[in-house]
Amino acid sequence: RRVQDNSEKGNVFQTAFFPPKPATMVVPPDMQYPPPAWEFCLITNEQIERAFKRMKPLRATKPGTIPNSVLTHCADLLASHIGPVYRATFTMEEYPDVLSATNTIILRKPGKSDYQNPNAYRPIILSDGWGRGFHATLNQDLVAWCEHLGLIPDRHFSG
Length: 159
What we know:
9% strand, globular, mainly alpha, 41% helix
């Protein structure tokens, strides 16, 4: 069927790209978890700087947020200033919503013959630059521990 307006088009894309959430959680309320595999440590400025430098500089971020290119090129200057903010998410047990807020835009895939088909489009997720840096730092630490403990093969995620 053909859609008549942008509202209908939005509904078609939402159905195609975002499946519904599961109805219920399947974790039993009395779940017994194994002991932690490692002791959590707060992230360091050095880890933040390393994560910033590894980010792709030309990757787009949400409008109004810091671009990746600034994080990659100024990592040594920014890490000591953003480090206390990132660490506060753990010491204060507060995670700012802005770090995980995203915008999703829909782009046409080049060379597709039928743009009436939702599969001729792809979603692009734009996230907050500071949030992306925070998650990159945590991911780097998590992968390093998993590789060290043999939970995943060496260089499975780190390239």
